[in-house]
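Researcher: Next sequence.
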Amino acid sequence: MRHIPLGGTGIQVSEVGFGGIPIIRLDSGQAQRVVRHALDRGVNFIDTAHMYLDSEEKIGKAVAGRRQEVVLASKTIQRQGGPALEQLETSLRRIGTDHIELYQFHQVSQDADLDALLAPSGAYEALSKARDAGKIGHLGISSHNLAMAVRLVETGLFATIQFPLNFIETAALDELIPKARAAGMAYLAMKPFAGGMIDSARTAFAYLRQHPDCIPLPGFDTIEGVDEVLDLYESPNALDEEARTGMERIVGELGGRFCHRCEYCQPCPQGVRITPAMMYRVVSIRMSPRTAASFSAVAMESVRQCVDCGECLEKCPYGLPIPEMLREHLELYDAHRLLPKP
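Model: Next structure:
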């Protein structure tokens, strides 16, 4: 496994990382085996978050005794200083470490989020002090809003930017990635499988390997899945006719009816958490039905507040029938929520 610079941090990381969401559906022993297998194959960069249920605990147990081999990244969703520090301390405790190499501000996609975290006594100020104290190596940030992501890069405040990149979602290529590269920031490619919409590792990574300084963070929940991706990195990349045909098939199947997570539709006047609710069908592919229902409960319950006012329809740049899709996802969520326990 080739190792490359994590932007200008001075840290070397594997050219493909380990995304920490899917292991939440595994028991602790299974999760540890998958993580350790990835480490044995040369992956040394693991990305998780405070809000990924028990992912941090499982990763902490998996890397126990091998901590010096691993570059850990986690995230906080908090924008205020005190709560952000609380989440950092919780992450450190869960993982069983006294420092995290990369700590990211999670899903900063709206002006209000950025304003809050950069305000006096906000999360940036508090976590900068934690960085100075040695609890954090570097501060990064993630977003799903392209305009905001570009703005975040331009602040010069962060070591890394995490944003989607796959052959379906290519918006970062024209401006965001070149700006990050010029700023010495690492580009962490979230959603290499487009949140479950891409079903072929060979096709997904034939595309991604065209951008070798962008570090993809696929989520793994099986040893076989780890091997499927990492085996691809042991031979020259082949963006051949088979891969191109696979890309065309998937793009054709999706059409225009999927959420791009730009968040232009928000905030909803009724308090519906539109973006995560629009992603429920994809979440239910990535997790077991009951786990998906539990993971997305807050967002999906908020859909019941929808009054079909149509405001989101006017804001969506992709012309999605958002209320209709939300009702479909709510029906699926209710079916999953009511499944009997195994």
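Model: The CA atoms of residues 313 and 319 lie 7 Å apart. Residues 322-337 form the longest helix (16 residues).
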